[in-house]
Structures are given as C-alpha cells and as structure tokens.
Amino acid sequence: MVTPYIPGRDLYKFMMARKPRHLTEYQSHLVFRQLMSGIKACHRRGIIHLDIKPENIMIDPNFRIYLSDFGLAVLMQGNSHQGRAGTSCYYPYEMVTN
C-alpha cells in the first residue's frame, strides 16, 4: 500500500502543542465528522481499522483529517468482528474487564 505524504501532524501532537490541550467545540465537530466519514468509507469496503486513536489521525494545515496506520486492519467476515486488536491503553472498559 502506498499512501501520500500528509504535511502536518497527528491529532495527539496537535492537541499537546496547544494551550489549553484540547480542541474547541467547532474543531471537535470538524474532526469527528471527517473521522466518521472515513470510517464509513472503510466499512463500505469491508475494512475494519481496529486501531483508531489520536496518534493515527493525521491533520493537515487546512484542518482536513486522514486516518492512518492500517497495520492492524482486517477485512470484515459477515457483519461483525470478534477478538482484540489495537492499543491496549485505548481499549474500552468492556474489553479490559472481560
């Protein structure tokens, strides 16, 4: 797979470079809307990312986002996926307790 170079940085570094260290409500809306669009496009193609986290969301200078690091991605088998993947510190509570 070949991907384009994205000038800018990932969402985590973008937030850490700011004071205060969070996005505005409007910026959060822009990021979330674009992220959901990207995830929807992946799912339409049968791809599950499995490692969505701020470090894997790139932001360019025009505040466009790009989902990156598909190293753990899998193709959907049916309508669901079983098993664990991703970065453990980002696991939801249900995955940690089971």
What is the element layout, followed by pairings?
Layout: E1 9-10, H1 11-16, H2 25-44, E2 47-48, E3 57-59, E4 65-67, E5 74-75, H3 93-97
Antiparallel strand pairs: 1-3, 2-5, 3-4
Give me the side-by-side strand order of the main sheet: 1-3-4
Number of DSSP-assigned strands: 5
Residue-averaged pLDDT, rounded?
A: 85
Coarse structural class = alpha+beta
Q: What is the N-to-C order of secondary-structure elements (H for helix, E for strand)?
A: EHHEEEEH
Residue stretches low in confidence (pLDDT < 50, at least 5 long) are: none
What's the Cα radius of gyration?
A: 15 Å
Annotation field: number of helices = 3
Largest sheet composition: 3 strands, antiparallel
Helix content: 25-40%
Tell me the β content.
5-15%
Shape summary: globular
Q: Could you explain how this protein is built, in words?
A:
Strands 1-3-4 form a three-stranded antiparallel β-sheet. The model has no long low-confidence stretch (mean pLDDT 85). It is an alpha+beta fold. 32% of the residues lie in helices and 12% in strands. The relative contact order is 0.18. The longest helix has 20 residues, at 25-44. The protein has helices at residues 11-16, 25-44, 93-97, and strands spanning 9-10, 47-48, 57-59, 65-67, 74-75.
Labels describing this entry:
single chain; 98 residues; alpha+beta; three-stranded antiparallel beta sheet; 3 helices; 5 strands
The gist of it:
With 98 residues, this protein is an alpha+beta fold. It is built from three helices and five strands, in the order E-H-H-E-E-E-E-H. The strands form two sheets. A three-stranded antiparallel beta sheet has the order 1-3-4.
